[in-house]
Amino acid sequence: MNPKVIVDDQLLAKYRALLDEEENAFNLAEHFFEEGNRIGFEEQLERLATASSKKNLLLERLGGPKALVTLA
Predict the structure, then answer these.
(1) Domain residue extents for the chain
(2) What is the rounded average pLDDT for all residues in the chain?
(3) Long-range CB pairs of 46-54, under 8 A, 24+ apart, other chains included
(4) Cystine design at 67: which of 25, 45, 56, 62 (Cβ 3.0–4.6 Å)?
(5) pTM of the predicted protein model
(6) How far is Cα 21 from Cα 71, in angstroms, rounded to an integer?
């Protein structure tokens, strides 16, 4: 874990919000796909990619995905 990063409730809340954003975008993309709404589907895929990218950057700042596991 990166010793310069302070893991607090605010950081964990941000991580949780990014996970929720990913999940919501995935669920909507799935819905639009099933309905045949290509524009909505593509918009949600872009939203999913953005949320995933932000989450990955946050994890990199922490020192990788294992950093959250070691906090427990």
Answers:
(1) 9-71
(2) 85
(3) 47/21, 48/22, 51/18, 51/21, 51/22, 51/25, 52/22, 54/18
(4) 62
(5) 0.74
(6) 23
Predicted confidence at residue 65, as pLDDT, reads 67
In order of 26, 30, 36, 46, 53, the CA distances from 5 in angstroms are 29, 35, 44, 29, 19
Q: Are 22 and 52 within 8 A, CB to CB?
A: yes
Distances (CA, A) of 25 to 19, 20, 48, 49: 10, 9, 5, 9
Q: Dmax over Cα atoms in the chain, in whole Å?
A: 47
Of all residues in the chain, what percent are helix, strand and coil, respectively (each to 5)? Answer: 80, 0, 20
The C-alpha atoms of residue 57 and residue 44 are separated, in whole angstroms, by 20
Tokens of 6: 């302070």
